[in-house]
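Let's see one such:

===
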Amino acid sequence: PEYFRAWWNLDRFYTHSIFLPEINNELEVKDAAYKARLTSVKNFGLWMWDQDRVVNPHTSEWFGAWDNERNNIPLKEQQMYEEDWVGLKTLYESDRMFFYHGPGNHMHLEQYMIDDYLKPLLLDQTPAPSEY
């Protein structure tokens, strides 16, 4: 339950889950250190696997979420992004956040994914253009 945000019962999620609400700065009192640490990174890359059968909702690999009717809420339409709780808006607006997707199930890495997407982010080279 610690790594799953129960979209149909958020009250229970906030009552019983300790890790995710805290690390996502969803609690009433925001921890500025979480945002400071995340925004200190040079590049922040996210990968969404097209056939992922592990992560649900699928779009949460790009910080997407579901509302209480199971409609997708993209990252940029969420309060946590708009109010920049963990620094995702800061990263995106400073061109340090990169969204990529490709074939495969969860964590299926092909050599081109490493060479074309991961290495440039880690080696301070020009990253591939973000898809979002």
